Amino acid sequence: MSRVAVVACGALAIHLKAIAARNGWPVDVHPLPPELHSRPERIAPAVEDALAPLRARYDRVIVGYADCGANGALDGHVRLPGDTCYDLFAGRAEIAQLRDEEPGTFFLTDFLVRAFDRVVISSLGLDRYPELRDDYFRHYTRVVWLAQARTEALEVAAEAAAARIGLPLQVIEVGESGLERELRAAIERVS
Predict the structure, then answer these.
(1) Per-residue pLDDT tens digits for 92-114
(2) Is this structure's pTM higher than 0.85?
(3) N or C, which end of the chain is more exposed by having fewer CB within 10 Å?
(4) How far apart are CA 98 and CA 145, in angstroms?
């Protein structure tokens, strides 16, 4: 079986690599900066730029993103389904239910817990202008951490992230099975 290139969101890349390795799948993951989520209109052009040289080296390519605010611009590619990576980890119906229960839900993944200061605080400028916190998070009422691999250290970091934006934390253990299922399906679509 020939190798598959996956141009992936930096927030998913470590999970995709681990899933592929665990299953022995011939997958090479090429991550893009997760900060693109702060400017989703830049996701599709960055993906296209990353795909161009890979098409000469790989017969099969997958886009390792959900829509992620790209407004359908990634739909011409074999990509991971869903609106966000939260759908990939917890399931689209489950995320919709959580949002219906409490529309002001701010979601975290393990990646976001680890990189919260860089990806959320710094990219929003809250490290320089902390007074903007209430403006950015005014309509949020809770933080839900969708834990892929819950550890004590990550739990402490998730609590600190929630406290940093002044919201209570709820933890839901979701694992990686949803992402694994969707990566398997994408690999099958390009085979």
Answers:
(1) 999 999 999 999 999 999 999 99
(2) yes
(3) N
(4) 12
Q: What crossing angle do the helices spanning 10-23 and 177-190 adopt, rounded to 10°?
A: 80
Tokens of 112: 């976001």
Checking DSSP bridges between strand 27-32 and strand 105-108, what pairing results, if any? unpaired
The C-alpha torsion from 92 through 153 and 149 to 164, rounded to 10°, is 10
The pLDDT > 90 percentage for the chain reads 94
Decide: 166 and 126 in contact? Cβ < 8 Å.
Answer: no
Helix H or strand E segment including 134: helix 133-137
User: In the structure encoding, which two tokens stand for residue 119, read together?
Assistant: 């990806």
Q: Could you give phi then psi for residue 130, rounded to 5 degrees?
A: -60, -20
Pick from 64, 60, 86: which is nearest to 13 by CA?
64
pLDDT bracket for residue 63 (50, 70, 90):
very high
- Rounded to whole angstroms, the Cα distance separating 55 from 74 reads 16
Structure confidence at residue 191 (pLDDT): 87
Radius of gyration of the chain (CA): 17
CA 160 to chain centre: 20
Report which residue type is found at 134.
D
